[in-house]
């Protein structure tokens, strides 16, 4: 079937919306671009005639984004549909959260290429919900001088300035015709933080995405965000992670027997955490895990859903099965400085927090497991001679 017919069927089957602003592409099995729509200009600063037949997917995405997408590319070339979200920096410097689908093109049992469909998550949500909105009359039409409109515009300006530097309160106030005092007051009332801290957290979200996927280190991200002193970036990043962990802790503590939740909600919650976390059922079978869990346990692209918790380390069953079993009896457990062998044979020091989750009122459905890798701390404090000996052997 000709490629243009395949693309037509693809857009119909996957209900492509807002094609003008969404990436639609096609790569062959060698990752050479065979089709690119005009939206590539907005997302990558390249017109279709600059891409098709001239660039590979790796060249177009660049090292950071390609590294983020590599595991999904490998899987789609095995014939498996892939869907994931990531952050993309536009040529303008604006950062957007993008949802991407890689759909394999299979002929006679062989993957000959794959379709690419990427779209702005926030814009898509707005378009999907438009039919639910009532038409505005002249009396209730959106006032561009209203506080809500101004705050939304300020958020857009902050997102667009993530790589170019903080635009400044004075500049923002003048741009949107509001006093500096009122802008700061209304922003804090709406978002419970200052404009600058909100901006820093946007930067740290991007930094965490790159660092957790090992696409950049802290020093590189400090340079990307124009921190004059890398130690300032490290302090800011640590504070961001600490706040994320506290938020996660509060959310976990809210998951109690009186508020029974569908297991799928626990999985969604865990998979989006910025920490190493996993959810297992009462038989210790994985239901889901965060991206950092895969990184800490050196699992690579291995899909652990449906596999036993004790498969990720030969030591777990021996050392912790009794502890995990006790947690199923509604016990919350904290373990300090435990040395563990990982799947790849390396050793690491971990700190554990284990909590039960509830499938129905009073009934434990499984465990929420949080792991913190403290190996670097142990090495730096000179308390890991045994750890170093094992890894050197």
From TrEMBL:
<dbReference type="InterPro" id="IPR000014">
    <property type="entry name" value="PAS"/>
</dbReference>
<dbReference type="Pfam" id="PF08448">
    <property type="entry name" value="PAS_4"/>
</dbReference>
<feature type="domain" description="HTH araC/xylS-type">
    <location>
        <begin position="152"/>
        <end position="251"/>
    </location>
</feature>
<protein>
    <submittedName>
        <fullName>PAS fold protein</fullName>
    </submittedName>
</protein>
<dbReference type="Pfam" id="PF12833">
    <property type="entry name" value="HTH_18"/>
</dbReference>
<dbReference type="InterPro" id="IPR013656">
    <property type="entry name" value="PAS_4"/>
</dbReference>
<dbReference type="GO" id="GO:0043565">
    <property type="term" value="F:sequence-specific DNA binding"/>
</dbReference>
<dbReference type="InterPro" id="IPR035965">
    <property type="entry name" value="PAS-like_dom_sf"/>
</dbReference>
<dbReference type="InterPro" id="IPR018060">
    <property type="entry name" value="HTH_AraC"/>
</dbReference>
<dbReference type="GO" id="GO:0003700">
    <property type="term" value="F:DNA-binding transcription factor activity"/>
</dbReference>
């Amino acid at each position: 079937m000709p490629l243009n017919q395949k693309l037509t069927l693809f857009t119909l089957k996957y209900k492509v919306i807002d094609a003008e602003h969404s990436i639609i592409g096609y790569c062959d099995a060698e990752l050479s671009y065979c089709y690119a729509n005009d939206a590539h200009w907005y997302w990558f600063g390249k017109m279709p005639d600059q891409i098709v037949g001239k660039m590979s997917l790796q060249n177009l995405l660049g090292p950071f984004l390609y590294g983020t997408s590599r595991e999904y590319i490998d899987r789609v070339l095995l014939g498996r549909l892939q869907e994931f979200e990531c952050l993309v920096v536009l040529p303008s410097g604006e950062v957007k959260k993008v949802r991407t689908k890689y759909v394999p093109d299979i002929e006679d049992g062989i993957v000959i290429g794959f379709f690419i469909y990427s779209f702005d998550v926030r814009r898509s949500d707005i378009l999907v919900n438009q039919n639910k909105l009532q038409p505005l009359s002249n009396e209730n039409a959106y006032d561009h001088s209203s506080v809500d409109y101004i705050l939304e515009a300020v958020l857009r300006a902050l997102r667009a300035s993530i790589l170019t530097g903080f635009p400044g309160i004075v500049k923002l106030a003048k741009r949107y015709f509001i006093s500096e005092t009122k802008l700061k007051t209304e922003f804090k009332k709406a978002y419970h933080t200052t404009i600058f801290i909100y901006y820093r957290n946007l930067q740290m979200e991007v930094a965490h995405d790159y660092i957790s996927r090992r696409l950049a280190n802290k020093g590189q991200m400090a340079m990307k965000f124009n921190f004059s002193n890398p130690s300032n970036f490290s302090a800011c990043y640590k504070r961001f992670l600490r706040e994320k962990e506290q938020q996660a802790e509060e959310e976990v503590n809210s998951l109690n027997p009186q508020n029974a939740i569908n297991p799928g909600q626990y999985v969604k919650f865990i998979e989006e955490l910025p920490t190493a976390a996993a959810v297992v059922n009462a038989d210790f079978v994985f239901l889901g895990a965060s991206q950092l869990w895969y990184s800490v346990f050196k699992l690579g692209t291995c899909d652990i859903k449906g596999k036993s918790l004790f498969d990720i380390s030969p030591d777990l069953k021996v050392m912790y099965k009794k502890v995990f079993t006790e947690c199923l009896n509604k016990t919350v457990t904290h373990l300090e400085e435990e040395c563990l062998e990982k799947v790849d044979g390396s050793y690491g020091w971990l700190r554990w927090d284990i909590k039960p989750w509830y499938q129905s009122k009073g009934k434990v459905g499984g465990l929420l497991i949080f792991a913190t890798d403290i190996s670097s701390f142990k090495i730096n404090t000179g308390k890991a001679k045994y750890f170093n000996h094992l890894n050197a052997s």
